[in-house]
Amino acid sequence: xxxxxxxxxxxxDASVEDFLNFxxxxxxxxxxxxxxxxxxxxxxxxxxxxxxxxxxxxxYHYKYASGxxxxxxxxxxxxxxxxxxxxxxxxxxNHPLTQKLGKVKTSKGCLYIKKLADVDKKILQELINEAAxxxxxxxxx
Length: 141
Hints:
Layout: E1 11-12, H1 16-21, H2 26-43, E2 48-50, E3 54-57, E4 60-63, E5 69-72, E6 75-79, E7 84-87, H3 90-93, E8 105-107, E9 110-113, H4 121-132
Antiparallel strand pairs: 1-2, 2-3, 3-6, 4-5, 6-7, 7-9, 8-9
């Protein structure tokens, strides 16, 4: 029997606008508002805070074979100190378009960008659109 783990990243009622306006770096703040709009356009969902620092869109429930389960946003992002982390599905991060995106780093299901000016926004929007319509059934979603 899997041990029940309390997730720290839970959807909450904190204000996304207040969170984003709290970003000190002006360019990062503007970029985050623009990314939020891109993700909202892709999901047709309003942003929600997940935990203290993730802006998420949509929601799915996952359950692993181990019995571990929980809820997560379909896509999201977080303004971190070093970069803006975009939480997209793994197959989207490995998508051929990612190679044409511009100056990014990737890992598992994440894209890391310093600023939007470093990437092709049209390609980024395509990747966000792909992630937003991902088949989550393999996760139990």
